[in-house]
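Journal club prep — side note

Before the paper discussion, L.F. wants everyone to see what a predicted structure for a comparable chain looks like in C-alpha coordinate form. Sequence:
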Amino acid sequence: MKTYEIPPDYSDVVLPEKPKLKFVNKVPNFKKAKKQMKKLRDIQGPAKAANAFTTGEFAIVAMGGGYLHWGHIEMMRLTINRKMDPQTTFARWRVNGPYKPITRKGLGQRMGGGKGAIDHYVTPVRYGRFIVEVGGKVELKEVEHLLKQVAKKLPFPAKVMTRESLAAMQQQQANMEENNQNPWTFKQIAQGNMLGIRRVLSPFDLQHHGHFTGKFHILGRV
Protein backbone atom coordinates (compact mmCIF):
# COMPACT_ATOMS: atom_id res chain seq x y z
CA MET A 1 0.00 0.00 0.00
CA LYS A 2 1.42 3.35 -1.04
CA THR A 3 1.20 6.33 1.28
CA TYR A 4 1.22 9.95 0.12
CA GLU A 5 2.40 13.04 1.92
CA ILE A 6 -0.21 15.43 3.21
CA PRO A 7 -0.28 18.52 0.98
CA PRO A 8 0.55 21.83 2.67
CA ASP A 9 -2.23 24.07 3.89
CA TYR A 10 -2.46 27.37 2.02
CA SER A 11 -5.66 28.63 3.65
CA ASP A 12 -3.84 31.57 5.28
CA VAL A 13 -2.05 32.69 2.09
CA VAL A 14 -3.46 35.89 0.60
CA LEU A 15 -2.46 36.78 -2.96
CA PRO A 16 -2.07 40.49 -3.80
CA GLU A 17 -4.21 42.16 -6.45
CA LYS A 18 -1.23 42.50 -8.81
CA PRO A 19 0.91 39.39 -8.31
CA LYS A 20 3.40 40.04 -11.11
CA LEU A 21 6.61 42.08 -10.96
CA LYS A 22 6.18 45.74 -11.74
CA PHE A 23 7.98 47.54 -14.55
CA VAL A 24 11.06 49.47 -13.39
CA ASN A 25 12.11 52.72 -15.02
CA LYS A 26 15.44 52.78 -16.80
CA VAL A 27 16.26 56.31 -15.56
CA PRO A 28 15.37 57.64 -12.09
CA ASN A 29 13.00 60.56 -11.78
CA PHE A 30 15.53 63.19 -10.68
CA LYS A 31 14.94 66.91 -11.15
CA LYS A 32 18.60 67.32 -12.06
CA ALA A 33 20.95 64.38 -12.59
CA LYS A 34 24.22 64.72 -10.69
CA LYS A 35 27.43 62.83 -11.31
CA GLN A 36 28.87 60.76 -8.48
CA MET A 37 32.14 59.16 -7.54
CA LYS A 38 32.52 55.38 -7.79
CA LYS A 39 31.94 54.75 -4.07
CA LEU A 40 32.82 51.07 -4.13
CA ARG A 41 31.68 50.82 -0.52
CA ASP A 42 28.15 50.61 -1.94
CA ILE A 43 28.81 46.97 -2.92
CA GLN A 44 31.16 46.00 -0.06
CA GLY A 45 30.17 44.29 3.16
CA PRO A 46 26.81 42.82 4.20
CA ALA A 47 23.44 44.25 3.27
CA LYS A 48 21.77 46.31 5.99
CA ALA A 49 18.32 46.35 4.38
CA ALA A 50 16.12 43.81 2.57
CA ASN A 51 18.03 40.90 4.11
CA ALA A 52 15.05 39.03 5.59
CA PHE A 53 11.78 37.57 4.34
CA THR A 54 8.57 39.60 4.48
CA THR A 55 5.56 37.89 2.85
CA GLY A 56 7.17 35.38 0.49
CA GLU A 57 8.60 31.91 1.06
CA PHE A 58 11.37 31.79 -1.55
CA ALA A 59 13.88 34.37 -2.74
CA ILE A 60 16.96 35.02 -4.84
CA VAL A 61 19.70 36.15 -2.45
CA ALA A 62 22.94 37.84 -3.50
CA MET A 63 26.03 35.95 -2.28
CA GLY A 64 28.38 38.76 -3.30
CA GLY A 65 28.42 42.43 -4.23
CA GLY A 66 27.84 43.91 -7.66
CA TYR A 67 25.77 46.25 -9.81
CA LEU A 68 22.40 45.48 -11.35
CA HIS A 69 21.80 47.12 -14.73
CA TRP A 70 18.35 47.85 -16.09
CA GLY A 71 18.80 44.97 -18.54
CA HIS A 72 19.20 42.50 -15.66
CA ILE A 73 16.07 43.85 -13.96
CA GLU A 74 14.06 43.62 -17.16
CA MET A 75 15.34 40.09 -17.79
CA MET A 76 14.14 39.01 -14.35
CA ARG A 77 10.77 40.68 -14.80
CA LEU A 78 10.07 39.12 -18.20
CA THR A 79 11.29 35.64 -17.25
CA ILE A 80 9.39 35.41 -13.98
CA ASN A 81 6.18 37.03 -15.22
CA ARG A 82 5.99 34.78 -18.29
CA LYS A 83 6.63 31.49 -16.53
CA MET A 84 4.84 31.89 -13.21
CA ASP A 85 1.14 31.23 -12.61
CA PRO A 86 -0.52 34.44 -11.34
CA GLN A 87 -3.45 32.43 -9.99
CA THR A 88 -1.28 30.72 -7.37
CA THR A 89 2.01 32.68 -7.24
CA PHE A 90 3.12 36.23 -6.59
CA ALA A 91 6.49 37.96 -6.88
CA ARG A 92 7.77 41.28 -5.58
CA TRP A 93 10.93 43.32 -5.93
CA ARG A 94 13.33 43.70 -3.01
CA VAL A 95 15.71 46.05 -4.82
CA ASN A 96 15.21 49.62 -5.97
CA GLY A 97 15.33 50.73 -9.57
CA PRO A 98 18.61 51.98 -11.06
CA TYR A 99 19.62 55.20 -9.30
CA LYS A 100 23.43 55.36 -9.24
CA PRO A 101 24.83 57.20 -12.30
CA ILE A 102 27.71 55.70 -14.28
CA THR A 103 29.64 58.10 -16.52
CA ARG A 104 31.51 57.31 -19.71
CA LYS A 105 33.49 59.23 -22.29
CA GLY A 106 33.06 58.83 -26.02
CA LEU A 107 35.34 56.58 -28.03
CA GLY A 108 38.53 58.24 -29.24
CA GLN A 109 38.55 61.18 -26.83
CA ARG A 110 41.83 62.37 -25.39
CA MET A 111 42.62 62.29 -21.69
CA GLY A 112 41.47 65.20 -19.55
CA GLY A 113 38.57 67.50 -20.10
CA GLY A 114 36.73 66.61 -16.91
CA LYS A 115 34.39 63.81 -15.95
CA GLY A 116 32.40 62.23 -18.77
CA ALA A 117 28.65 62.46 -19.27
CA ILE A 118 26.20 60.11 -17.56
CA ASP A 119 25.82 56.97 -19.66
CA HIS A 120 23.43 54.81 -17.61
CA TYR A 121 22.24 54.02 -14.08
CA VAL A 122 22.76 50.95 -11.90
CA THR A 123 21.56 49.52 -8.59
CA PRO A 124 24.29 48.60 -6.06
CA VAL A 125 23.79 45.24 -4.32
CA ARG A 126 25.61 43.88 -1.27
CA TYR A 127 26.03 40.38 0.13
CA GLY A 128 22.82 39.00 1.63
CA ARG A 129 20.50 41.35 -0.24
CA PHE A 130 17.22 39.88 -1.46
CA ILE A 131 16.66 40.52 -5.17
CA VAL A 132 13.24 38.98 -5.79
CA GLU A 133 10.85 37.40 -3.32
CA VAL A 134 8.31 34.78 -4.43
CA GLY A 135 5.41 33.29 -2.51
CA GLY A 136 1.85 32.04 -2.78
CA LYS A 137 0.21 28.63 -2.94
CA VAL A 138 3.26 26.88 -4.39
CA GLU A 139 6.10 24.66 -3.21
CA LEU A 140 9.80 25.11 -3.86
CA LYS A 141 9.95 22.46 -6.60
CA GLU A 142 7.43 24.40 -8.69
CA VAL A 143 9.46 27.63 -8.82
CA GLU A 144 13.03 26.48 -8.11
CA HIS A 145 13.95 25.89 -11.77
CA LEU A 146 12.63 29.33 -12.66
CA LEU A 147 14.52 31.14 -9.92
CA LYS A 148 17.75 29.23 -10.66
CA GLN A 149 17.50 30.20 -14.31
CA VAL A 150 17.32 33.86 -13.31
CA ALA A 151 20.03 33.63 -10.62
CA LYS A 152 22.59 32.21 -13.09
CA LYS A 153 22.29 35.29 -15.32
CA LEU A 154 23.00 37.88 -12.62
CA PRO A 155 26.37 39.70 -12.60
CA PHE A 156 27.21 38.44 -9.09
CA PRO A 157 26.87 35.05 -7.36
CA ALA A 158 23.28 34.48 -6.27
CA LYS A 159 21.41 31.60 -4.64
CA VAL A 160 17.80 30.46 -4.35
CA MET A 161 16.82 30.26 -0.68
CA THR A 162 13.82 29.46 1.46
CA ARG A 163 13.05 30.60 4.98
CA GLU A 164 14.39 27.29 6.32
CA SER A 165 17.61 27.28 4.28
CA LEU A 166 18.39 30.90 5.23
CA ALA A 167 17.88 30.15 8.91
CA ALA A 168 20.01 27.01 8.59
CA MET A 169 22.87 28.93 6.96
CA GLN A 170 22.81 31.57 9.70
CA GLN A 171 22.66 28.88 12.38
CA GLN A 172 25.60 27.03 10.83
CA GLN A 173 27.73 30.19 10.91
CA ALA A 174 26.76 30.81 14.54
CA ASN A 175 27.64 27.21 15.47
CA MET A 176 31.02 27.50 13.76
CA GLU A 177 31.85 30.60 15.78
CA GLU A 178 30.59 29.06 19.02
CA ASN A 179 32.35 25.71 18.63
CA ASN A 180 35.58 27.03 17.14
CA GLN A 181 38.59 25.13 18.52
CA ASN A 182 41.21 27.52 17.18
CA PRO A 183 41.98 30.19 19.80
CA TRP A 184 43.53 32.53 17.21
CA THR A 185 40.67 34.04 15.26
CA PHE A 186 40.99 36.88 12.78
CA LYS A 187 39.26 39.22 15.25
CA GLN A 188 41.69 38.45 18.10
CA ILE A 189 44.75 38.69 15.86
CA ALA A 190 43.65 42.05 14.45
CA GLN A 191 42.62 43.55 17.79
CA GLY A 192 45.82 42.34 19.45
CA ASN A 193 47.95 43.69 16.56
CA MET A 194 49.96 40.49 16.43
CA LEU A 195 53.15 40.83 14.36
CA GLY A 196 52.07 44.40 13.57
CA ILE A 197 49.28 43.24 11.25
CA ARG A 198 47.34 46.46 11.78
CA ARG A 199 49.74 48.16 9.38
CA VAL A 200 48.29 46.24 6.43
CA LEU A 201 44.65 46.08 7.54
CA SER A 202 42.04 48.63 6.58
CA PRO A 203 39.18 49.89 8.77
CA PHE A 204 36.90 47.75 6.58
CA ASP A 205 38.79 44.60 7.66
CA LEU A 206 38.61 45.60 11.33
CA GLN A 207 34.89 46.25 11.10
CA HIS A 208 33.93 42.97 9.40
CA HIS A 209 36.69 40.79 10.98
CA GLY A 210 37.96 39.47 7.66
CA HIS A 211 34.63 38.03 6.47
CA PHE A 212 34.80 40.13 3.29
CA THR A 213 37.44 40.91 0.70
CA GLY A 214 36.01 43.88 -1.13
CA LYS A 215 32.71 42.77 -2.64
CA PHE A 216 33.48 39.05 -2.12
CA HIS A 217 32.27 37.15 0.94
CA ILE A 218 34.60 34.53 2.45
CA LEU A 219 32.47 31.55 3.49
CA GLY A 220 33.49 29.58 6.53
CA ARG A 221 35.75 32.21 8.10
CA VAL A 222 35.33 32.46 11.86
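L.F.'s comment for the group: The longest strand covers residues 117-125. Keep this in mind when we get to the figures.
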